């Protein structure tokens, strides 16, 4: 709803600002023209993802997931690495937002290594599959990259980088 409200306000403002200009010049700055050049499937994809995470948070599913991860994996590094793998399927922004809802700042303060590792894992984990990042979704639409091609040619390289980064983070913490 907020996105549509923002679009409506933008539309009204552009109409007011350009009301005295000739029709041809007005059309260059119209919201309709901007919408014609927009990648609508990508916008709808992200809208769906954000709405889904909101529903999961409101229904308490993210809290249950946090409990399951904590019971299953005793190490917080393994928990964060697992969340990073989830980021290969779910965009990193809602993953991080969901994780903040799962693990409150009272448990892990802002400067905790937990959040640093999460930033790495969510960002890099999103590259394990092409659908895990905004750039990947945009590339699929604009450059016509297929999921299968990415999986075969890029995913394994991203996995090596992902695992190497986690190891480097763990080694850095030992220093």
Q: With helices defined by DSSP (H or I, 4 residues minimum), what is the helix count?
A: 11
> Which structural category fits the helices and strands?
mainly alpha
What Rg is obtained from the alpha carbons, in whole angstroms?
Answer: 20 Å
Separation, N- and C-terminal Cα atoms: 47 Å
Rough outline: elongated
Low-confidence stretches: none
SSE order, one letter for each helix or strand: HHHHHHHHHHH
Helix percentage: over 70%
The domain tally reads: 2
Approximate strand percentage: under 5%
| Biggest sheet details | none
| Total beta strand runs | 0
Can you give the mean pLDDT? 85
Describe the SSE topology.
Layout: H1 2-17, H2 23-28, H3 31-36, H4 40-58, H5 61-72, H6 76-86, H7 92-102, H8 113-125, H9 134-143, H10 147-153, H11 155-174
Helix pairs in contact: 4-7, 5-7, 6-8, 7-8, 8-11
Question: Which short descriptors sum up this protein?
Answer:
single chain, 175 residues, mainly alpha, 2 domains
Question: How would you concisely characterize the structure shown here?
Answer:
By secondary structure, the chain is an all-alpha fold. The protein is built from 11 helices and no strands.
């Amino acid at each position: 709803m907020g996105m549509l409200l923002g679009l409506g306000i933008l539309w009204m403002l552009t109409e007011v600002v350009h009301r005295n200009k000739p029709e041809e010049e007005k059309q260059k700055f119209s919201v309709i023209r901007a919408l014609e050049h927009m990648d609508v499937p990508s916008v709808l994809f992200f809208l769906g993802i954000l709405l889904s995470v909101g529903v999961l948070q409101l229904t308490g599913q993210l809290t249950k997931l946090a409990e399951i991860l904590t019971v299953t994996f005793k190490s917080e590094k393994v928990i964060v690495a697992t969340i990073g793998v989830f980021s290969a399927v779910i965009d990193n922004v809602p993953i991080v937002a969901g994780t903040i809802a799962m693990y409150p700042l009272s448990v892990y303060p802002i400067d905790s290594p937990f959040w640093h590792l999460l930033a790495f894992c969510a960002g890099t984990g999103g590259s394990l599959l092409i659908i895990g990042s905004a750039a990947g979704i945009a590339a699929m639409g604009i450059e016509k990259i297929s999921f299968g091609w990415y999986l075969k040619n890029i995913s394994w390289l991203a996995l090596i980088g992902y695992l190497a980064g986690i190891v480097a983070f763990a080694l850095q913490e030992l220093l």
